[in-house]
Amino acid sequence: EVQLVESGGGLVQAGGSLRLSCAASGITFDDYSIGWVRQAPGKEREGVSWLSISDGSAYYSVPVKGRFTISSDIAKNTVYLQMNSLKPEDTAAYYCVARWGRFTSPNLHDYNYWGQGTQVTVSS
After folding, report:
1. Which of 23, 36, 51, 24 is nearest to 90 (CA)?
2. Can you give the pLDDT of all 124 residues of the chain as single tens digits?
3. For residue 28, what are the contacts with CB-CB under 8 A and spacing of at least 6?
4. Residue 68 neighbours by CB under 8 Å, 6+ apart
5. Which of 37, 42, 107, 121 registers the highest number of CB atoms within 10 A of its CB?
6. Which residues contact 26 (CB under 8 A, 6 or more apart)?
């Protein structure tokens, strides 16, 4: 059974930092691409960042580029999202998502495994 378990969310002031973790089990980790998706109240889900575990290619959405960094620890089957210079508009539930294959995709429907999410709240 594939499981993605997020952690690291919380409440932080604007300008602060958080690091989210996604621990994956039930998959051959480096056969997958893993990403982060967020959903703010009343808004549609949006892709934030994607990582090809096998070749390390990383991609970011425009709103977070330059502030967020995605990385992985293959020994721990874990993907991280380091979030710096947080803004109130980053407030959302953040979900870890995974799809088989080394190629990432910005299309959320291409990710067939989703975690339960972790809440990030940025106060102004």
Report:
1. 36
2. 999 999 999 999 999 999 999 999 999 998 999 999 999 999 999 999 999 999 999 999 999 999 999 999 999 999 999 999 999 999 999 999 999 998 989 899 999 999 999 999 999 9
3. none
4. 48, 49, 60, 81, 82, 83, 84
5. 37
6. 1, 2, 3
